[in-house]
Amino acid sequence: MARPPHAREKVLLAYAQLLVEGERAATMDAVATRAGVSKGGVLYHFPSKDALAEALLGRFAEVSAADVKAMQDDPDGPVRNFIRTSWETDADLDPVYRAVMRLAHAGHEGALGMLESLHDDWLRELETETGDAALAKTVMLLGDGLYHQASMPGRWSQQQFSDLDELLAQVDRLLGR
C-alpha cells in the first residue's frame, strides 16, 4: 500500500527544521520522530541522508526560482521587492534557505553552489534595475542586514525596523528617485 503523498512532505519539512537546529541533529531517527512517521516511512521516501539533502536542494531550487520570478514581476521593481521580502522570515523561501545554509556550513558543496547561484540571481536582478553594480551590492547588503535583524530573537528589531516605508524611501533616494 502506497504511503500518503503528504508523508514525504512531512519528512522533508522535519529534515529542514532539524537542520536549522543543527546539522548533526538531523539524524534519520530524529527526522522520523519530528515527522511523526516510522523510520521505515522515512527510508521509504528517502533511502539515505544524501537523498534527503538532494530533495531539500530540489525544493530550494523551486522556491528560489519562484523568489527571483517574484522580483522580476513585482510592479515596484526588484529593488523594492528585495528590501520588502528581506524582512519576511515566514515566507516559503526562509525555512528552506536556512536549512540549505546549514548544509553549506557543514561542507555540502551542492548546497553552497545553490546558495551562491541564488545570490548571483538576486544581485543580477538588482543590478539590472539599478544599472550600477556597486549600488546593487549596497541594496543587497541592506536586505541582508534586514534579514539578519528579522531573524533575531526578541522584539528589538521589530520595534526599530517595523516601518519599511521609511527605509524604502531612503532606498528610493539612493536610487535617485
Automatic annotation (TrEMBL):
Residues 27-46 bind DNA. Residues 5-64 form the HTH tetR-type domain. It comes from the Bacteria. This is TetR/AcrR family transcriptional regulator. InterPro entries: Homeodomain-like_sf, HTH-type_TetR-like_transc_reg, HTH_TetR, TetR_CgmR_C. Keywords: DNA-binding, Transcription, Transcription regulation. The lineage of its organism: Bacteria, Bacillati, Actinomycetota, Actinomycetes, Propionibacteriales. Gene3D superfamilies: Tetracycline Repressor, domain 2.
